[in-house]
Amino acid sequence: MSVDQLIKRLNAIADAGLIYGKNAFDLERYQDIKDVLRELTGDLSDLTPAELSDLFLPTSHYPTPMIDVRAFVKNDDGNVLLVRDQAKGDWALPGGYGEIGFSPCENVLKELVEEAGVTGEVVRLLAVFDTNKWQPQGRQYYKLVFECHALSEDFQVNSETSEIGYFNLKALTVPLSEKRNTRSQLNLLEELSQTGKQYVD
Predict the structure, then answer these.
(1) At 61, is the secondary structure helix, strand, or coil?
(2) Cα–Cα dist 96/143, whole Å
(3) What's phi and psi for 66, nearest 5 deg?
(4) How far apart are CA 33 and CA 127, in angstroms?
(5) CA distances from 7 to 37, 90, 107 (A)
(6) Which ranges form a coiled coil (predicted)?
(7) Which of 6, 84, 134, 137 has the fewest CB atoms below 10 angstroms from its CB?
(8) Are 38 and 56 within 8 A, CB to CB?
(9) Beta strand 141-153 with 118-130: parallel, antiparallel or unpaired?
(10) 66-200 — its CATH code?
């Protein structure tokens, strides 16, 4: 494990202790672990100040990885749909956090409509990525990428997306939102979509 992964793992253990611990002395020790970690991480970690702040927020639930869903959509020319982030101007596959009350497939189709104005259907699960392996950040995510087929498209600029486009991944020059998807991930997804295979970390 990297230093960042060890920090997140130890923080998760301390969080679990604070949630389920009963003994007052043990609770104090778990909080001490979090306090020491907070001091250490500034010097040892590559995480940004915002990511570090998010990492040490109190939690009332057992700490588990978060879920992120992404849609991999191709047009008739074989180009892949990407959306441009309204705030940062970088590009990513349409998607977002998994929301309570929706299945993974329902979540990704909802995100596809909200971000890209595309009504679609899920074809299959292409990949499950662990951000600890691909793009380490404050929180650990499992990224579920679904191959989707577009049924209709009616994009309008919205609070999340300034524009959409279909891109040839082999000639991609736009800046990517690396925390959402890396170039290596996109290349792997393209390969999976052509071979019918699936990837799971």
Answers:
(1) coil
(2) 9
(3) -85, 165
(4) 35
(5) 7, 29, 30
(6) none
(7) 6
(8) yes
(9) antiparallel
(10) 3.90.79.10
Tell me which H or E stretch contains 167: strand 161-167
Each residue's pLDDT tens digit, 62-90: 778 999 999 999 999 999 999 999 999 99
Q: Which amino acid is at 159?
A: S
C-alpha–C-alpha distance, residues 83 and 151, integer Å: 17
DSSP assignment of 92-112 equals E-SEEE--TTS-HHHHHHHHH
- 141: Cβ contacts below 8 Å, ≥ 6 apart: 65, 66, 67, 68, 130, 131
DSSP letter for 133, please: H
- Side chain identity, residue 155: F
- Residue 104 one-letter amino acid: P
DSSP state of 198: -
pLDDT in tens, 122-139: 999 999 999 999 998 878
Domain layout of the chain by residue ranges: 3-56, 66-200
Distance CA 115, CA 163 (A): 9
